[in-house]
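If you are new to this repository, start here. Below is one unmodified record pulled from the training split, so you can see the exact layout before writing a loader.
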Amino acid sequence: MAGAAVLAILAGWWLVDGLPPADAPETVVATSTITATAPGGAMPATAQPIGDARPAPDAMLNPSLILIFESALAEAQATGKAAFMAMAPALLAKRLPAELVARAMGLLERYIDMQEAMQALPPPEAGDPASLLKTIEARAEVRRRYFAPEEIEGLFGDEIRQDALMADKMAIARDANLTPGEREAAAKRSEEALLTPEQREQRRAFTAQVDVQRQTDAMDARGASAQERFAERSTAYGYEAARQLAALDQENQDWNSRLDQYANAPPDQQAQLRESLFNERERLRLSGALALRSARPVPTAAGRTPGRSPS
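And here is the target side for that same chain:
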């Protein structure tokens, strides 16, 4: 199972694009409800997201539109709403069909206003279910001020269900009447009730991603050889996943070598190297890669790869 999840990751998006931009605005936390868990691990009767969720047949109203908004905000790096909205039509035109831009502009402006209102809310106290519930309900009320029910379901429905799961798991973890086995069973039932099969698979893939990264960090820290890395990965994830991870290591080494060559070149040579060393897609990410790279610790082991190839 672990090997299959790792192969799915290697075939997917996260190794291609890496993490979201560090300056991207925080995604809105969706509404949920904290529910008590019955003794014996029974599923809470109210383990459903509270009243934001509605059918959303409109194909434009889906979470991908929020990702487009976040991408446009990150690219613009505007200092205020007015400046960003002046840039927004061109930014959206790069990401959406022309006939959808006008409508997306209206949704985008409301999204920005909602984000500003969300940021004014006090954060929940760490580990306090009652405080989390209060914050979740306050955010739900803010969302309802800016979006209709069908818009909330389409744009934020996945987050609503994810937050419902988070709240339920916190309540389950704090239920002193449950044994460890009952907690695990109740958490699994909550996940099955609140998440779609696709979302459950995404969670498994994310867990596999974290496991792979932790193992890679440990091998980097001790300067593991390519042979040692392949052997450990084969044991954990299977031969094919280990082979693909080894290929990724090689790509990253090549990427970092080119970054070194570019960063260490005299300024009057960098324009030429930018064209000769990087393809069009890599050039779009070059500035961000160099900034991220400079913020990371200096590598201390031969296997360390401080940058990730975007190709």
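Two things worth knowing about this chain: Residues 13 and 19 are 10 Å apart (CA to CA). The mean pLDDT is 77.
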